[in-house]
């Protein structure tokens, strides 16, 4: 028991040391634009990319795209980005040195993988990603990254792997297991789960926050996202230590599940997922 307590305290201390070394990042766009302006900006991007036709698509990803289109809400298919055109796919075994099996560079529209299974995850980054050259900002699902920092990596990786597992692996999760669990719980807060899918494909983190603010105030939702990010980063650095941020977010979700805005079935599903 004493050893377990020492391990817990040591893990938290290391995590807090990590926190003190990073820059606090405000969520982009929330202060620069209101919801309507941000929404219109996304529509403009979508209308521009939608004019492109599927040309020069790698044969390796055609079956994946077919499966994704079969399992994606029809209203959301139109939001899928056209990065599949001229997508470059390379084998890169040096990724193993980082503990990765795949990566996607949206600026170069290039996927590096160790094995073909990694494509199941990376293809969703491809379809939900966009690089804004004017703002020098990367939008990747729920992730926003620019010179000021990045935010949304935890939620983004969790939901991305969740989509990959349910679309291609009969629910088997191969990475980001804690992130996936939180993403699955968050999804239960949506009356229509395809709404969360839409926010993901439209890389619309502010709209996600706006929706979730019916269960907690926006600052609390932003804190949830920040802890989600810290959880992911400390998992990479301290994979054997207890994860303070993971537990804190589970506590938040459990508290939010008491909201009168949820149906009895949603509440029950959330409780069951938390217990797993």
Structural class: alpha+beta
Q: How many individual β-strands? A: 7
How many domains, as an integer? 1
Q: Give Rg in angstroms.
A: 19 Å
SSE blueprint:
Elements: H1 2-21, H2 35-50, H3 62-71, H4 74-77, E1 88-91, E2 102-105, E3 110-113, H5 119-128, E4 129-132, E5 137-140, E6 143-146, E7 149-151, H6 153-168, H7 177-187, H8 193-201, H9 205-212, H10 218-237, H11 244-256, H12 264-275
Outline the structure in words.
- The protein has 276 residues and is of the alpha+beta class.
- The chain has one domain (2-275).
- 54% of the residues lie in helices and 10% in strands.
- The protein contains twelve helices and seven strands.
- The chain has helices at 2-21, 35-50, 62-71, 74-77, 119-128, 153-168, 177-187, 193-201, 205-212, 218-237, 244-256, 264-275; strands at residues 88-91, 102-105, 110-113, 129-132, 137-140, 143-146, 149-151.
- The strands form two sheets. Strands 4-5-6-7 form a four-stranded antiparallel β-sheet. Strands 1-3-2 form a three-stranded mixed β-sheet, covered by helices on one side.
- α5 (119-128) crosses α6.
Compact summary:
The chain has 12 helices and 7 strands. It has helices at 2-21, 35-50, 62-71, 74-77, 119-128, 153-168, 177-187, 193-201, 205-212, 218-237, 244-256, 264-275; strands at residues 88-91, 102-105, 110-113, 129-132, 137-140, 143-146, 149-151. Strand 4 (129-132) and strand 5 (137-140) form a beta hairpin.
């Amino acid at each position: 028991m004493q050893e377990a307590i020492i391990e817990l305290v040591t893990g938290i201390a290391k995590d807090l040391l990590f926190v003190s070394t990073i820059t606090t990042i405000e969520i982009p766009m929330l202060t620069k634009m209101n919801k309507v302006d941000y929404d219109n900006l996304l529509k403009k991007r979508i209308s521009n990319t939608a004019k492109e036709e599927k040309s020069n698509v790698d044969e390796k990803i055609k079956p994946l795209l077919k499966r994704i289109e079969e399992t994606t809400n029809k209203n959301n298919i139109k939001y899928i980005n056209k990065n599949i055109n001229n997508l470059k796919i390379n084998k890169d075994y040096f990724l193993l040195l980082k503990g990765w099996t795949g990566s996607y560079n949206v600026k170069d529209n290039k996927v590096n993988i160790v094995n073909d299974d990694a494509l199941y995850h990376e293809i969703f980054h491809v379809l939900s990603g966009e690089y804004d050259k004017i703002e020098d900002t990367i939008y990747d699902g729920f992730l926003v990254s620019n010179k000021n920092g990045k935010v949304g990596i935890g939620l983004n990786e969790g939901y991305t792997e969740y989509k990959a597992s349910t679309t291609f692996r009969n629910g088997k999760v191969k990475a980001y297991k804690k992130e996936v669990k939180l993403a699955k719980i968050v999804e239960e807060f949506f009356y229509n789960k395809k709404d969360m899918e839409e926010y993901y494909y439209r890389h619309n983190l502010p709209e996600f926050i706006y929706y979730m603010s019916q269960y907690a105030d926006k600052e609390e939702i932003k804190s949830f996202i920040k802890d989600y990010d810290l959880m992911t980063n400390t998992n990479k650095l301290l994979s054997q230590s207890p994860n303070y941020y993971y537990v804190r977010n589970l506590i938040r979700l459990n508290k939010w599940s008491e909201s009168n805005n949820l149906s009895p079935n949603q509440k029950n599903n959330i409780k069951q997922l938390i217990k797993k």
